[in-house]
Amino acid sequence: MDGLDEQLLALLRDNARLSMADLGRRVGLSRTATLARVRRLEDGGAIRGYHAEISAKPAAGGHAARVAIVVNTPDVAAYVRRLRAIPELQEAESVAGEYDLLVRLAAADAERLDEILDAINAWPQTVRTTTFVVLTSYR
Description:
About 40% of the residues lie in helices and about 20% in strands. The chain is an alpha+beta fold. It has 2 domains: about 5-45, Winged helix-like DNA-binding domain superfamily/Winged helix DNA-binding domain (Arc Repressor Mutant, subunit A), CATH 1.10.10.10; about 65-135, Lrp/AsnC effector binding domain/regulation of amino acid metabolism (RAM) domain (Alpha-Beta Plaits). Helix 2 crosses helix 3. The chain starts with a helix and ends in a 6-residue tail after the last strand. The mean pLDDT is about 90.
């Protein structure tokens, strides 16, 4: 990876919707040369995908929460797959420290949030959860 690749990655990080022609103009390459570099970065794993940033705000009147989870399972990936089946799940992250996972939920109301938490706590692999209800998000 050279300086041009790093410039391309920085530009794409800021705006993944830039055309190859626009990217090329900004780094001094032709559209074809830029496309070849971007494809090489994709094939090499430096670019893993392109994503839309979706608002994480719950629906009007909704409830957002962060939930820290301690699990007892050798297969954390399977546990996360189960979490991902919950439609209200916004994000799941593996973390270091007292907890194993940190998830973000956005439920329509407090009752639905409570149902989700009860379900997660009922899983045999769940040792403990700590819920942080979001009062205000600052962006």
